[in-house]
Each structure stands twice: as C-alpha cells, then as structure tokens.
Amino acid sequence: MGFLININDKEFFKKLNNENVRPIADEIRRFLVDNVIKSGGHLASNLGVVELTLAMYKVFDFPKDKIVFDVGHQSYVHKILSGRADNFSTLRKHDGLSGFPKRSESPYDSFNTGHSSTSLSAALGIAKARDLNGDDYNVIAFIGDGALGGGMAFEALNDSGAGETKLIIVLNDNEMSINKNVGGLSSHLSMLRLSKKYINVKDKVNRFFNKFGKPGQTISKFVKKMKRAIKFATINTPVFEELGLTYIGLIDGHNIDDLTVAFEKAKSTDGPVLIHVVTKKGCGYEPAERNPDIYHGIPPHFNPENVNNNITYTSVFGDYITRKAESNKKISVITAAMTSGCGLNLFASKFPDRFFDVGIAEEHAVTLAAGLACENIIPVFSVYSTFLQRGYDQILHDVCIQNLHVVFSIDRAGVVGEDGETHQGLFDLSYLTHIPNMTVLAPATQKEFEQMMDYAIDKCEGPVAVRFPKAKINNTNNSDFEISKIETINSTGNNVVIFSVGRMLDLANEVFEKLNAENISSTLCNVRTIKPVNTDELNNYLSKCTLAVTIEDNVISGGAGQYLCNTANREHRSKFIHFGFPDSFVEHGSQIELMKKYGLSAENIISNIKKELMN
Ligand SMILES: Cc1ncc(C[n+]2csc(CCOP(=O)(O)OP(=O)(O)O)c2C)c(N)n1
C-alpha cells in the first residue's frame, strides 16, 4: 500500500505541522474508513485521534518511549504508524492483526489492553520499573474521558499524584464514552473546557512574575500557592492538580502545533503530568461525526442503510425488560456504560428514573445493585460477561453473602469472536457457580429466556444470573421452563446422555441426530438451570447411561459440565466427558472458526464419544 508515511523515517514525523499535516491526516482517515467498514471494528474513536497520534509520533521516540493505550480500541492509528498498515485487511480476523494492542504483535505495543481503565496503573508500573532499572525514556498513558471514570483509573491517579514518578498521561476528552459520557468527573471536564479562560490567566500571571527573575519566581511560587487556595474556593481547579499532578490544558487535539508544544512541555516536566486534549470523535467522516455511538464499534461490512435485523438475545432482552418494567414498577436497570450494547436504549428513554448508567464502573454497579436490593427495589444489572469479571468480589461479598435479590443479565456470554481474548465471555459459569446462594441459568430459546427472566425477577429471592450469548436467538417452542428441572428434548435410548448448555443446543442436536444415524442410542437434554440442578433427576439420567457428554461455551475448568459432574453421585462421575473451551486464552476470529478450532463441532464430539464407548 502506497502510504504517504514512511515509519522508518523519524524525520518525516519531526517535520509535521499544521501547514503540511492535512493530506496525511486525510489519507489515514480514508484508510481507516475503507478498512474498518470491511473488517468491522472501532472506527469513530480512531478517526478522532489521527492528529493526536501523529503529534505523539512527532515528539516521542517509539518504541524506546512507551505508550499504553487504555482499552486499546483507539490504537489503530498507532498500528498504522508503527508499520502495520500492510496487514490492515486482516484486522480482527483469525491469525490477523488484533483490534487491541498486543505485545506479541509489535514492540510498539507496550501493554495488552481490552478492558477499560487499566492504562494509568500499567504505565505507572512501567515508569517505576524504568526508574528502578536506571533507564531513561518517556512513559505515556493514553486514556479517554470515559475510561478515566473507571475505578482503577481513579486509584492510579491517587497513587501517581502522591509520588514523584515521571509519567505523562494524555487524556483524550471527546465527551463520549460509547454513548454520551456520564458522571461527576465528566461534568468536571466540561467545566474545565468552559473555564479555559482560567488557564490563560494563570499563564499570564506566571509570565508576569517570571519577568522579575529569581525574586519574581519566588513571588510567583507564593502566588501560585495562594492562588490554589483561592481558586479552590472560587473557580474550578482541575481535580488533577489537587491530586498532585501537573495539568496542561486545554489542548486542541486536532492542532499539531499546539499538541507539539504541550508534549514538549510534558517531557520536560518532572513528576506526573496530565495533558487534557479535546478531540472530536468520528472527526473527518461525517456519518461517524453525526453518530459516534453507532460508529464506535461496527460489524464487518457495515452498511447503516441495511442494519442486520436479526432477533438476538440482546434485542429480546431489551424489549422484554421494557415490557416487564411497565407492569413491575420495582424494576430498575443498571448499565456500566453499555446502554446500546446491552439493548437498553428503549428502556433508558422510557424509564429514565429507573435507569442508572454508572459509567465504566462494574464494581460500583454490582454494589449499587446490592444497595437497591436492600430496600426492595429489583435491580437488574445488564452487563457483558467479560466485564462482570471486574465485579467478582462485589458479587461474592456484597450480594451473595447477604443473599440479596440482584438479577444479573449477562450478555456476550460464551465466545464473542473478533474482539479476542480480552472480551471472550468464557469464564462466567466458572466464576459464578462456585459462589454460595447464586442461581445460574442459561437459555437456549427465546421462550425459555423470557421465562427465566420472569423467574429471576418475580420468583427468585436471592442473587440470580441469566447468561446468554452474542447470537441470533432460537425461537423454537420448547417446553415451559421450570427451575432446576432438566428438559429432555429427544431420546432414542440411554447409551449416551447429552447435557447441552444454553446456545449449544443446536450443536448438541446435530450430535444427537448423527449418533442416531449411526445407531448409537442417546438422550438429548437441555440443562437450563446450571445451579441449583435437581440432583435426583440428574442421578436418574446418569444411572441409566453409559456415557454423559456435556457441551458448553465456557471454559471446561469450573464450567457447567464439571459442576454437574461434581454434583452427581460419586459412582456416576467417571461417566462424564466435557466439551467446552480449554485452559488457554481464546484468540480473535469468528465464533464459528473458534468453536471449530476448540473442538466444538459435531465431528469432533462424535469421534470422541465413539472412542469412549469403545473403551
Ligand atoms: C471494564 C470495561 N467495561 C466496558 C468496556 C466497553 N468499552 C469499550 S470502549 C468504551 C468507551 C470508552 O470511552 P473513552 O475512554 O472515552 O474512549 P473513546 O472511545 O471515547 O475514545 C467502553 C465502555 C470495556 N472495554 N471495559
């Protein structure tokens, strides 16, 4: 690809300025749009950081200097500038470029990311290691205003502000998370944007006193201290200064010259520095500027005119919970910055008083739900499986020990595909089933999904999780859901009993049909309730069969299969073989490719069943 940029030519970056940057920025934007529309991925965030990333490449010396991108979804321009443009057609494809920074992919990627709000901690760690090792380079944490609202980022600000470690934080403030950013910090950033005047006044005062040399500087320092006190009481002091960081802002994130000055200033400042940069999400591509939320993350071959209208678990949940909340006024819904991703736009607009977007704060969301449940509200925390990992201690300590009625609606459970190992929802069955008091349900059809939600909201008295995949929903009219009861879907005899978990029912059915065609009698069961399962019923199935096969989209370790096996009577335990994901992180690729690769295909399952039956 004939790119204008030669990444090996450091001088090229050094010469960039407002006069000559336009054709280069335009070319990068065209390249991003052309590629990401085809591959799918994060478009709007990357379009917003083109000049900002170019300016960082101008001032810093990567990969000697190290940058940690928060979430990492906005690292595409960095990938292009660090020599990966030629592979961009493989973005998010199996064995292709990852959609997030990966240390194994390039020496320019200093830290793997995917989940939000980790960059400040990681960068501070790298900076401290640099100092301990006696090395000399810059460490930059690149974080968005949405990610900055996450608890870990606050913890890291608190820690870095208290110390002397030199760290450069670039705050990319585009006023957006995926949807509009929320929370007090976001309001504070807005105030800072409004009070740019204050920064100018401060600089003028300093320049005035510095003119008088040493005595002037002493007065300036004194005035600075005084001013801090006065400012605190009168106008907005950037909270970062109060925490002990040097604040540089506001900087226009599309102005290379201003960015260059700010970065140079940060380089020569001791201790932690935060540069507050303002950018426009989606910049330069009109559809993304108009709808940055829609263009935050798009599927492959995205066409806004022709949106995929498949009925998914997510859309069914969004419609269900809105309907349910009409009749049950006790329901409130919590999201951690995933309103549209979790299908909650309708609920949010219909019931603003009962909808809580807490920002990227899963830990807080869980304990907030616990508090609501204490006072007889029915909180439904709608969250992706991978992000709920953040709330493990809160689930255990704040919800389950008190046996509070909190409903966890766990979207994107199972293999998610193109976002890769940081986003796969392959652990929730393992991290939930072992917590006392927790009920865990996995629907295979729309009918039972809605009935499980009814059970979770109306009948269950303690914590309950309904986990479902990123997939089209099956609308078969199967039997009514009954808590703890295993559903028998079909049976030709008892040689093999197949226990299918949630969405794996289609695959399990294929296995059942093929076994039948080979005269291996079997019974196909839909487990539905992972916990608490009816043990008498389970043992009854097991006492009749030779082999028990479990199929799930979770890691095998600690998953539904092992849970059933451990729950069964001891004499039946050796009958089990489990199919699910192995004890390794599952990379990016399509869901179909990954299922096949990890043995979740009828051929593989059947050949293993046959081997076991011959033993
Ligand atoms: C722990 C966690 N929760 C939720 C997400 C989903 N997520 C990815 S990007 C994003 C918004 C980030 O906003 P911001 O940091 O402002 O970056 P921008 O896209 O606006 O540049 C969210 C909520 C995540 N990656 N990690």
Can I get a quick summary?
This protein folds into four domains: 12-195 and 240-287, Rossmann fold, CATH 3.40.50.970; 202-235, no CATH class; 313-467, 3-Layer(aba) Sandwich (Rossmann fold), CATH 3.40.50.970; 487-614, Rossmann fold (3-Layer(aba) Sandwich), CATH 3.40.50.
Describe the protein in words:
The protein has about 625 residues and is of the alpha/beta class. The protein folds into four domains: about 10-195 and about 240-285, Rossmann fold (3-Layer(aba) Sandwich), CATH 3.40.50; about 200-235, no CATH class; about 315-465, Rossmann fold; about 485-615, Rossmann fold (3-Layer(aba) Sandwich). Helix content is about 45%, strand content about 15%. It is built from 26 helices and 17 strands. β10 (about 440), α21 and β11 (about 465) form a beta-alpha-beta unit.
Major β-sheet strand ordering: 7-6-8-9-11-10-15
Number of helices: 26
Q: Would you tell me the overall average pLDDT?
A: 93
| Ligand inventory | thiamine diphosphate
CA radius of gyration: 27 Å
CATH topology of the largest domain, anyone?
A: Rossmann fold
Shape: elongated
- Which percent bin holds the helix content? 40-55%
| Structural class category | alpha/beta
CATH superfamily of the largest domain: Thiamin diphosphate (ThDP)-binding fold, Pyr/PP domains
Oligomeric status of the shown chains? single chain
Low-confidence stretches: none
- Tell me the number of structural domains: 4
The CATH architecture of the largest domain can be named as 3-Layer(aba) Sandwich
Number of strands: 17
The span between the termini is 56 Å
Q: In percent, how much strand structure appears in the residues?
A: 5-15%
Please give the largest β-sheet. 7 strands, mixed
CATH class of the largest domain: Alpha Beta
